[in-house]
Amino acid sequence: MNPVAELAKGLKIYWSGMTWLRKNPKYFLMLLLPTVFGILSAVTLFSSFWSYRELVYDLVLFEPGDSTLWAILYSVSSFFLDIFMFAFTLVSGFLISSVISSPIYDVVSARVERDKTGKVVEISIWASIKLIPEELKKVFVILAISVCLMLIPIVNIVAIFLTAFLLGWDFYDYPSARRGLPFKERRQLATKDFWSIMGLGLWLTIPLVQMALYPFAVVGGTLLSLERLEKGQ
User: Fold this and answer.
1) In whole angstroms, what is the distance from residue 80 CA to residue 108 CA?
2) 117: which residues sit within 8 A by CB, 6+ positions away?
3) pLDDT at residue 105 tops 80
4) What is the pTM of this model?
């Protein structure tokens, strides 16, 4: 496996998904709703932090001393804390949006699967409800790893690439979830397409632009996942 070729494949498949959406404008319009959910969630979370930031500073940061050096250190630390909280609330907002919007994503993903394979794996409403704990588990894992990556010195330099994989995986996962695969198997499938999923997810890490790009990745993620599931069969 050539990581560079796989990464390029993931970058390209996002726009293959956008081509599909241009041919199916109804689903493009449907995905605008998760965009609104994501923006509202991220703005609400960051506004909450900003309202209580002084309390957060007191809990997290050291008490500033009287010297100029201490004042500079405090200012730099508070600046990086603001950056961290902005990134955290952005990722959290879109992950919360993913849970809320999962029925919409699943409808679009199923339509893509039917279009590409001529059939789609259907699951009952009860089976969908039983998958919710698995979805929450996935969101928790993505959020926990993203936060840890942002906090660990040096590692956080490459955190953007691993976060890209995690965000891409969120959309790659829908066909596997419809098949009722447990979390462990879905994770194993994703690791086989690690570089391609990272390429897909890199579009979702571009500051501010990601707000518009995020929901539409479900089409590219589905296409990538269907290819892997076909190989497995």
Assistant:
1) 38
2) 226
3) yes
4) 0.76
